[in-house]
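Input C-alpha cells:
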C-alpha cells in the first residue's frame, strides 16, 4: 500500500506563554499544502525482523531507528498484533524547514497501518497515538485547516479555502534549530487572535499576522529575511516563514515564471493551493 504524506505551512505563529513543563503555549493556523513524500508499506514475508526500513530521495540525517515511521510502527505494535512490514520512505519534503514532513510521515504511517491491517482505530484514536510522537503529528490525521493551540496539539477546525491562489515555497540551504529559535522568544499574548485574523481578507494579513520566530531567526540568518522581502517584491499578497524555519512561502494571485532561476541554489517549488 502506498500513500503520499503532504507538508503543511503555518499562517501566523504566536508564542503566548512558557509552561511549567518547559514547553510553550502557542497559537497558529496549520494549512496542508501539495508537497509530498511517498510512503509504501507492505507485509514482509518470512522475516525474523519486525520491520525493514528503506530510505530514498533527500538524505535524512540521524539514526533510522529514530525515524517517526518506525516509532509509529513500534507504538502500534504495543497494542496490536502487527505482522513484519517492509517500509519504503521516499523523502521529497525538505527536512528542518518548518513544513512538518516528519510529522506527516508519522501520521500517514499510522493511517496506512490502520487501513492495511484493519485495526479499526477511529480518527480520535489515531490522533491520540500520533500526539504521543510529536506535537503536530496529530494534525495530519485529518489533514484539514485548523486553529491550533496548546503546544500545537489542540485543534479547532476552521473554514479556510485558498483555491485560486498560488504558493511559492523557498527553502534555503540553512538549518534552523528549533531549540535555538525558542531560546530567543519573549512570550506575549497577541492583540488580535489568529482565529480572528484568518477570517480577514488575505490582502490584510500582512498587517496583522506575524510569526514570532522571525525576529530572532532573521537577525541570525538575514538570507532568510531576504527571501521574504524578495517574495513581496515579486508581488506576494502575503509572505512568511513557516514554523521555526527555514522555509519561507509567499501567496500569489497568479503563476510566477522562472522561480527556480530567481531562487537559484534553494529548494523552490510553486504549487496551486489546496
Amino acid at each position: 500500500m502506498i500513500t503520499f504524506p503532504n507538508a503543511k505551512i503555518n499562517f501566523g505563529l504566536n508564542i503566548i506563554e512558557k509552561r511549567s513543563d518547559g514547553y510553550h503555549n502557542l497559537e497558529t493556523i496549520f494549512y496542508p499544502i501539495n508537497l509530498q513524500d511517498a510512503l509504501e508499506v507492505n507485509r514482509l514475508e518470512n522475516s525474523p525482523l519486525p520491520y525493514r526500513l528503506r530510505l530514498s530521495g533527500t538524505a535524512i540525517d540521524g539514526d533510522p531507528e529514530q525515524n517517526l515511521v518506525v516509532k509509529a510502527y513500534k507504538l502500534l505494535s504495543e497494542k496490536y498484533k502487527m505482522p513484519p512490514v517492509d517500509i519504503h520512505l521516499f523523502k521529497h519534503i525538505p527536512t528542518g524547514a518548518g513544513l512538518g514532513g516528519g510529522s506527516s510521515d508519522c501520521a500517514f504511517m499510522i493511517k496506512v497501518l490502520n487501513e492495511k491491517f484493519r485495526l479499526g482505530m477511529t480518527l480520535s484514536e489515531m490522533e491520540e497515538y500520533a500526539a504521543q510522537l510529536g506535537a503536530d503529528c496529530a494534525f495530519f490525521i485529518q489533514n484539514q485547516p485548523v486553529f491550533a493551540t496548546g503546544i500545537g496539539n489542540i485543534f479547532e477546525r476552521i473554514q479556510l479555502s485558498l483555491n485560486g491562489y498560488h504558493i511559492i515555497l523557498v527553502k534555503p540551504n540553512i538549518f534552523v534549530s528549533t531549540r535555538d529559535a525558542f531560546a530567543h522568544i519573549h512570550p506575549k499574548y497577541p492583540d488580535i487572535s489568529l482565529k480572528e485574523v484568518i477570517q480577514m481578507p488575505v490582502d490584510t494579513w500582512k498587517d496583522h499576522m506575524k510569526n514570532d520566530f522571525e525576529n530572532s531567526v532573521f537577525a541570525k540568518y538575514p538570507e532568510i529575511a531576504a527571501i521574504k522581502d524578495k517574495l513581496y517584491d515579486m508581488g506576494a499578497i502575503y509572505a512568511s516563514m513557516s514554523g521555526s524555519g527555514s522555509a519561507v512561502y509567499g501567496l500569489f494571485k497568479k503563476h510566477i515564471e522562472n522561480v527556480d532561476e530567481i531562487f537559484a541554489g534553494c529548494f523552490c517549488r510553486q504549487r496551486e493551493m489546496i
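Residues 72 and 110 are 6 Å apart (CA to CA). The first strand starts at residue 2 and ends at 3.
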